[in-house]
Amino acid sequence: MASLSVNTEEKEKAVPVEYDSDDDLEPYDMSHDAKVTKEKPPVYIGDCLDGLMSRENPARIAACLEAAERLIRDERKLVEKQVATELAKVLLHLQDEYSIENFSRLRHRALIATTVNFPHQVALYLTREFYEPNYNIRQRLDMLEVLASAAQELSKPAGEPSSPPSCARRRGGEACEVSCSALGGTADWRELVQQRIDKNTRHFAQGRAKRETPALHSRFAEVAGVFFYPLLTFYDRRDSRTLDLLGDDSLVLSRLVYTLGVVMHASLHAPIAQQMAVDFMQFIWALRFHTQPYVRQALLFAVAMVILSTPAHSLMTDMSEEVLECRYWLLGEYCLLP
Fold first, then answer.
1. How many CA atoms lie within 13 A of 284 on its CB side?
2. To the nearest whole percent, how much of the chain has pLDDT over 90?
3. Backbone phi, then psi, for 87, in 5-degree steps?
4. What is the pLDDT of residues 131-156, one digit of tens each?
């Protein structure tokens, strides 16, 4: 019996004991799970504006900030102009006091949406406030970034217009059938004349029909001057205690030049673009000998935007002196490169 008990104890020591452990369990993929919050997202833009101004409820501020861009773009026809300016003011002064996730990105996108939907009112507000006191450097840079991003979005075509259905022309000189109901009840007189010409014209060979490029309306052409000239006017003002672009705040000056260059390129084909190019070249020429290299680099970018945005015939006729002087300046900058 003693030997049997010894053998049993040896077998128990030899066999490893398995314990329950959580190391072999694979965690669930929770990357696509929706966050559950007690605060309901706002339904109307007025509720969103009130939520952004409530300083004592961080959950409500986060919910309103996440829904701000969607509400602004969905309710752009229902929002009054004064409310849009007030919304831009609240978003501009909003601070991340509660470490909200993606705060900077959400705030930036909401400001862009407000500027795109109400470009005249919001751009006037931002360009005016840029030179006002009691703003820190971060807020001024945010204004410039919002203006540049909004200008780029407004310069893109909103969508191709729906062209009226054209009549189907048959080969061999057969009559072209026109459905007045398909043309909205009234046929265009030019199309009717073209049908009669085609009916009495004999075609020996017919090549590929060229598809006409539809004309698209530029949303930025109407407000290009609002984005551009207020920023260009007061850059040399020294009466502000918190902003000195020609002195200590040269970093902000370089960002201002980049923003003006982006606005200049976004105003391509706008009626005011040529006058903007002339005034912008005078601004560049006044700062061409700036001591900071990043400011001169921004000026080179601005010159490139002027060349890309201005027709060649205008550069060689109306701006020939500016282009010649700019050429000598660029050659001098090239010689200074290491």
1. 30
2. 37
3. -65, -40
4. 998 899 999 999 999 999 999 999 98
Six-digit token string for 120: 């005249």
Nearest to 260 by CA among 288, 286, 280: 280
In which residue are the tokens 């014209």 written?
Answer: 201
Amino acid at 167: C
Residues 6+ apart with CB under 8 A from 187: 178, 180
Burial of 46: CB neighbours in 10 Å, binned 0-12, 13-18, 19+ = middle
Residue 42: CB partners within 8 Å, gap ≥ 6?
48, 51, 63, 64, 67, 71
DSSP 258-287: HHHHHHHHHTTT-TTHHHHHHHHHHHHHHT
Residue 207: what residue type?
A: G
SS3 (DSSP) at 119: helix
Calculate the CA dihedral of residues 325, 330, 335, 338 and round it to 10 degrees. Answer: 160
Residue 174 neighbours by CB distance under 10 Å: 10
Return the pLDDT at 162: 38
Answer for the pair 130, 88: CB distance below 8 angstroms, yes or no: no
